[in-house]
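User: These chains co-purify. Model them together.
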Amino acid sequence: MESYNSEGEYIESCKRRALLPRGFLASTTSLTFFPVEKKVPDAMKMNLSLILLKEKSPLFAAVFTRNAFPGAPVRIGKELLSRDRVRGILVNNRIANVCAEGGVEDARLILAELGRLLECEKYDFFPSSTGIIGWKLPVKDMISSLPSLIEGLQDESIFPVARAIMTTDSYPKVRSFLHGEGRTVGIAKGAGMIEPNMATMLSFILTDVKLDREGMREMLHRVVEESFNRISIDGDQSTSDMVIFLSSGKVECDSVVEYEDELKELCRKLSEDVVRNGEGVGHVIQVTVINAPSEAIARGVGKAVVNSPLVKTAIFGNDPNVGRIVSSIGDFVGNSLAGNTELAVSPGFIRIASGLLFMERIAIRVGKKMVFENGVFKIDEETEKFLSDYFKDCALDSEGKRFPAHDRKVEIEIDLGSGREESTVIGSDLSYQYVRENADYRS
Amino acid sequence: MESYNSEGEYIESCKRRALLPRGFLASTTSLTFFPVEKKVPDAMKMNLSLILLKEKSPLFAAVFTRNAFPGAPVRIGKELLSRDRVRGILVNNRIANVCAEGGVEDARLILAELGRLLECEKYDFFPSSTGIIGWKLPVKDMISSLPSLIEGLQDESIFPVARAIMTTDSYPKVRSFLHGEGRTVGIAKGAGMIEPNMATMLSFILTDVKLDREGMREMLHRVVEESFNRISIDGDQSTSDMVIFLSSGKVECDSVVEYEDELKELCRKLSEDVVRNGEGVGHVIQVTVINAPSEAIARGVGKAVVNSPLVKTAIFGNDPNVGRIVSSIGDFVGNSLAGNTELAVSPGFIRIASGLLFMERIAIRVGKKMVFENGVFKIDEETEKFLSDYFKDCALDSEGKRFPAHDRKVEIEIDLGSGREESTVIGSDLSYQYVRENADYRS
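Assistant: Joint model of the two components:
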């Protein structure tokens, strides 16, 4: 558990974590542009950032959104995975370059110029964009900014980039760990969406630890599956989400197994940071489903609960409305799991591919307190008081604050009592502020 | 299109529609009770209603929630389907009788007494309950109220019942139609949930038109599938949802095919009424998906869009954020449809069981205006202005009003361009009021 008393205290802790691993440079700059989409254009500001390997490296991996309308950076990035080596990542905020005419060509024009300036090729850089979708990148202005971006390169800290990639984030997010002599640092932005942005979840992880190229790609997939892919704020996966993992390979790895555990922990912390900083988030909610017939069922139940607007609003209001948890489990099991055949649900259990799921065996604990067992609620006034106090204690009260007060979260455990698999998902409550931030008209 | 200028005008229109078909009686009463769940009990009020056939009838059908934690009334109701004849429905609000210890036994005690008073059996009545879940019914108080309930039976109007079954509904919902000499009337309550209620969706449809017993059951399933099962406010199906359809069989049916169409129209209107009266609903949203490879895909895309918190909040804010519609389609196709294999999504199309779904062929119209085509947005300032005005025109401004001002809705059409199937789903926006109503602590 960590807590911070002031913005300064939080920023200092981020800066301490933000030291660049060996072999990396970073820079950021900002530019002003006039969007072509506006008849009467208003000047807008964009941050442009560069994460650069001192030398090209074959050690890189990436995981992209599964959204079937991917943005231009995702389309280009997927192609780069077959390259022998890459040099770095060029990131902009403000415009996401999604479903805009000629978006791929525009990104390539900018990368080609970056390649020319750094004596590389346009295929040596991952592009990454977040912001308004449907709009075109200000290609000329971005190209004009590249020389000053390159001039600003430094080898000390990723912190300025962590701050520059923010859109609606209220604070930067940086996590790091040491593995022997090696150093790994990760930054992230997003999620939750604010108008007019699709709040892309971007994360960049840099290390000087030497890993096997294929092994590192498989490792990233496994790690993302158990961290970034376990968070859910809007229930939506945006058109531009990506996690990029680069290694300079300067330091030998002591233990790949241990490294993977440490990387998973880093990604879990970053993904919780992302949820905690989601727009209008008042509580972080963690749902752990245990003793499930399959991991997929565990994850499905967890997501159904953590995405239920009714569960989310109840927790926002510090309301011990356990009925909504029960109802969302029942809805998932009866509808999504059992499909559309009413016959599949017998009183007491449902037949699923892997066997039987006994509804009467389901037990629910909130804040470690048993609230539902044997098909009946275990709720009296005392329990309601406990739950309400527990929710209040986990509340973030983040309105107006530009730092997280603490990293406590509401913990819900659902014991399905019908197997040995489990899954944990992280989500957030649903607040007035969420609606306000997501409803305001572009201006 | 209908519109109402005052509560009185709306109520009058409901009363005109509410005439009982031949062979039916109805009554409602209210009672005060002290919930056993409270250590220091506060008196609470409950409405109890009875819908009674003058004589037992074999012509009855029911569709129940698929939620795998069904309430006691759903458990009992499912069993009744195998009975030869039934006499009616006993409905209470305030307590839903879900996951409460001995809930089935409690409901049976009350029905047994009702049966004794009416010289029937306890198995002759559908029980129906809506309200707090986890609490026990006030069995004694309910039994004490039965004589006055029976005394109040009248054969004129279902309107008092339509009003008595309301929980958080702000106005009663009644629809009816004539078929030759026959009369059919339907009432509904719900949906959307307000603390501490699980806003059960209840609908009771009464007719004097004579139908075939099995045919009427199949008809109800088909009709519900295309009406009540196409609405989605919270994304959740509650533990107590039910639709009961009773016929006194007094009037011969001219045309069963036409009757089914008329019944479907009645159910669609009732289900739209339910959405329009959902807590904090500012806009009703209708998503029609056409030219889909399958009906299931059409419905899935429609539900993904209509349930997306981001689409919902944008429409609440009258914000023409078409990007969110595109993103939610892409998320559904890339994740739910393509499953978890990233490989299934190729640039431009995805392979599905029934063939190919070409992403570039997807076109989106909002208010009949094309806003997305060939993978690119068709949005300029004029279109944005049109959309914003269109959303404003569809807004309900229902805050504080106890009647619906009009029945306009936001119409979104998604043309998948990859097949011939279609589906229409109805949902609502996401407003401050929704969060407020769903977050307030029980008191």
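Chain A has two domains: 7-276, 284-439.
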